[in-house]
Amino acid sequence: MTDTQPQEKLRTESGMEFEPIAEQAPEKRAPKSDTRPRPSIRTRRARLRISRVDPWSVMKTSFLFSIAAGIMMWVAVYVLWTLIGASGMIEAINGVLTTLLSSDQNMTPTRVEDFVNTNKLMGFTTVAAVANVIILTALGTIFAFLYNLSATILGGLELTLAED
């Protein structure tokens, strides 16, 4: 079949017409590419709606996360206080305070350790961590109830999950 000959149309049983593709000369043919089977490019998607959150589950989860945050805060404060003490920063602060607060007649040194020591600092950190646990647990539970109320009115949060 040459390019100048009229091409006949192919017809299916349903009446659709197709024209055959003219054969190209070997020099015009596209180079053969990889013949391996390719995976499908199409990704699967799922649309989900979060219409209700269980407040009891939210309370348990927020309690455990706030306990973990309190432990991390306690350890971080202890490590920082130990590093500050080992670096000599407390002695430098004592020297600066003594220079600023003393007079020519009274040269008594001012010591930061009289006001802030490891036991006081860790006790304050423990109280702050316990308060943080109580507050974050209560806030998480209250927000779960508020989300449930707003989800009944607005329909909830809609998510689209896609597979890579």
Chart the SSEs and their pairings:
Blueprint lengths: L9 E2 L5 E2 L26 E6 L4 H33 L1 H13 L16 H37 L2 E6 L2
Antiparallel strand pairs: 1-2, 3-4
Helix pairs in contact: 1-3
Which features would summarize this protein structure in a list?
single chain, 164 residues, mainly alpha, two-stranded antiparallel ribbon, 3 helices
Strand-residue proportion: 5-15%
Largest sheet: 2 strands, antiparallel
In the predicted model, the low-confidence regions spanning at least 5 consecutive residues are none
Choose one word for the global shape. elongated
What's the pLDDT, averaged over the residues? 82
* Spatial separation of the terminal alpha carbons: 46 Å
Proportion of residues in helical segments = 40-55%
Tally of strands = 4
Give the class from helix and strand content and strand pairing: mainly alpha
Helical segment tally? 3
- H/E element sequence: EEEHHHE
The Cα radius of gyration reads 37 Å
**Strand arrangement, major sheet:** 1-2
Explain what the structure shows.
By secondary structure, the chain is mainly alpha-helical. It has a domain at 53-87 and 115-149. Helix content is 51%, strand content 10%. It is built from 3 helices and 4 strands. The chain has helices at residues 55-87, 89-101, 118-154, and strands spanning 10-11, 17-18, 45-50, 157-162. The protein has a two-stranded antiparallel sheet. It has a two-stranded antiparallel sheet with strand order 3-4. Strand 1 (10-11) and strand 2 (17-18) form a beta hairpin. Helix 1 (55-87) runs antiparallel to helix 3.
